[in-house]
């Protein structure tokens, strides 16, 4: 996956291999929004979101997501349609999402398209609701967003839109339920821009030209979706097909580095190595083999972003005592690995939301340490704290590159709780038994956590599983006698930030 801020808004662009991967990224951003107190989310409909709704339902029914405190609204509705009418947006949302949930939601506020004065009623509805934490968006083949067709001024808050023929054709069977004219009531660009965060999803080659116009042509009502570049917290998630027409590289983007298999002599960073550890024990478990294999001359640090105070420990200590214990264990871990130990004590851990102050503080640490390599969790890691840690790091790393003018490599690690797709991995670090012994000794410094779960055993097992999984294609396993002994392997996604 590549990601970048674009234009004046520092928009975050994420390009992943296929529609399933794009859906997963959008779901994880949605899951992060659920951590807000009483979340408020605006939904989008259409083919691009069919997989997304299935994913939400699976997580909620499986007990891994709770929507009972979340209130929803949506973008648009065909004019004159009663909310329960077959073919309506509300009917689609009820069929694909709400009727399938086990626990329900806090509320759903449908677009009032069948009223006497629908525009006034929609404006009144929007004014009565608190600002949305997250608005999901798609994009039409002509660049429309919601049902704001090309030419819609960005200042419009709500409107009745006459739909273009291309939009009608794309919506297909829905129009069998229309009550006459092909018109729709829609939230306007201004209302969309009021959301705290925007996430736009586009998949498939049919969206590629619209995506190019959205990101590369001037920001203009000629392409309504270009409004995302005016927003301070906007993310665009594309599969490779939807991104195929992008030609400009004026937006800042990580560069995926070539595939490599690295052993101790090959590990030569041109500066310090800094681990971004969401919890006090993630550094050794996720990348202890790499850390233990670096030459002694390399400066290395573990920067822990949270106190880990919510973890259970023997004896049921207070949160303050747990935080002190876990930081003491992290210092012992760092000493074993030959690393400096630093603690951000991020406020996002308690708020469970993205915090700009944490970005500022993390940036200050990175400016002080000046890393050549950053080892970091994945944006789509299922653990919410890991996801937030990566979002905060991405924002800080972007500013680090902008302020220093120096590139930095980001190595996205995995762990026993999360593995990369094999097709995404482009760096394998092969380490020996001595490095494994150091890695496991460092992991076992976290005695309070090993009393609950033997995480160290998971890390050791993963190193062997990765060796088996990559042996034939990367480690010489195709040839008889080459792999006489199974190596130990850590897998990474390795990208360069700030490289033209």
Short description:
The protein has 500 residues and is an alpha/beta fold. The chain has helices at 19-33, 50-61, 89-96, 118-128, 165-171, 189-193, 208-216, 282-293, 319-337, 348-351, 356-369, 384-404, 433-443, 447-450, 455-474, and strands at residues 2-4, 12-16, 40-43, 71-74, 76-78, 107-109, 134-137, 158-162, 183-187, 198-202, 234-239, 255-256, 260-262, 273-277, 300-304, 340-343, 373-376, 408-412, 427-431, 488-497. Strands 12, 13, 14, 15, 16, 17, 18, 19 and 20 form a nine-stranded mixed beta sheet that branches. The protein has an eight-stranded mixed beta sheet with strand order 1-2-11-10-7-3-4-6, with helices on one face. It has a three-stranded antiparallel beta sheet with strand order 5-9-8.
Polypeptide structure, described:
- By secondary structure, this protein is an alpha/beta fold.
- It folds into two domains: 2-239, Rossmann fold (3-Layer(aba) Sandwich); 255-497, LmbE-like (Rossmann fold), CATH 3.40.50.
- The chain has 15 helices and 20 strands.
- It has helices at residues 19-33, 50-61, 89-96, 118-128, 165-171, 189-193, 208-216, 282-293, 319-337, 348-351, 356-369, 384-404, 433-443, 447-450, 455-474, and strands at residues 2-4, 12-16, 40-43, 71-74, 76-78, 107-109, 134-137, 158-162, 183-187, 198-202, 234-239, 255-256, 260-262, 273-277, 300-304, 340-343, 373-376, 408-412, 427-431, 488-497.
- The longest helix is centred in the last third of the chain and has 21 residues, at 384-404.
């Amino acid at each position: 996956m590549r990601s970048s801020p674009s234009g004046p808004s520092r928009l975050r662009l994420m390009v992943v291999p296929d529609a399933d991967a794009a859906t997963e990224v959008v779901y994880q951003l949605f899951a992060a929004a659920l951590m807000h107190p009483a979340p408020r989310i605006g939904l989008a409909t259409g083919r691009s979101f069919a997989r997304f709704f299935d994913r939400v339902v699976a997580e909620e029914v499986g007990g891994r997501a709770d929507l009972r405190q979340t209130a929803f609204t949506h973008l648009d509705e065909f004019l004159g349609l009663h909310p329960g009418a077959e073919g309506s947006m509300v009917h689609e949302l009820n069929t694909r999402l709400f009727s399938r949930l086990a626990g329900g939601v806090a509320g759903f506020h449908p677009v009032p398209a069948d009223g006497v004065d629908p525009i006034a009623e929609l404006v009144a509805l929007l004014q009565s609701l608190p600002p949305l934490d997250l608005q999901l968006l798609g994009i039409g083949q002509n660049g429309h967003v919601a049902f704001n067709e090309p030419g819609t001024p960005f200042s419009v808050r709500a409107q009745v839109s006459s739909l273009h023929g291309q939009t009608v054709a794309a919506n297909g069977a829905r129009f069998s339920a229309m009550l006459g004219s092909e018109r729709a009531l829609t939230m306007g660009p201004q209302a969309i821009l009021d959301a705290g965060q925007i996430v736009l999803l586009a998949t498939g080659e049919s969206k590629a030209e619209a995506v190019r116009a959205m990101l590369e042509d001037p920001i203009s009502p000629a392409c309504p979706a270009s409004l995302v570049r005016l927003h301070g917290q906007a993310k665009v998630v594309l599969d490779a097909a939807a991104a195929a027409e992008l030609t400009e590289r004026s937006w800042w983007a990580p560069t995926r580095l070539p595939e490599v298999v690295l052993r101790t002599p090959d590990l030569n960073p041109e500066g310090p190595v800094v681990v971004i550890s969401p919890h006090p024990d993630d550094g050794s478990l996720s990348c202890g083999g790499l850390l233990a294999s670096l030459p002694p001359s390399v400066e290395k640090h573990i920067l822990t972003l949270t106190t880990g105070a919510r973890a259970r420990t023997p004896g049921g200590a207070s949160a303050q005592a747990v935080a002190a214990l876990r930081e003491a264990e992290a210092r012992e871990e760092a000493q074993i690995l030959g690393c400096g130990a630093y603690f951000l004590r991020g406020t996002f851990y308690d708020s469970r939301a993205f915090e700009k102050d944490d970005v500022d503080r993390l940036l200050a640490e990175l400016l002080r340490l000046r890393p050549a390599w950053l080892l970091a969790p994945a944006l789509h890691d299922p653990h919410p704290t890991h996801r937030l840690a990566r979002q905060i790091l991405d924002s800080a790393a972007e500013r680090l590159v902008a302020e220093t003018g120096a590139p930095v490599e980001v190595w996205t690690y995995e762990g026993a709780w999360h593995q990369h797709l094999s097709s995404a991995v482009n760096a394998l670090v092969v380490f020996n038994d001595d490095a494994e012994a150091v890695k496991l000794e460092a992991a076992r410094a976290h005695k309070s956590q090993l009393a609950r779960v033997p995480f160290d055993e998971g890390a050791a097992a993963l190193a062997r599983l990765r060796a088996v999984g990559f042996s034939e294609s990367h480690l010489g396993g195709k040839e008889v006698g080459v792999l006489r002994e199974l190596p130990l392997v850590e897998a990474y996604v390795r990208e360069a930030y700030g490289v033209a």
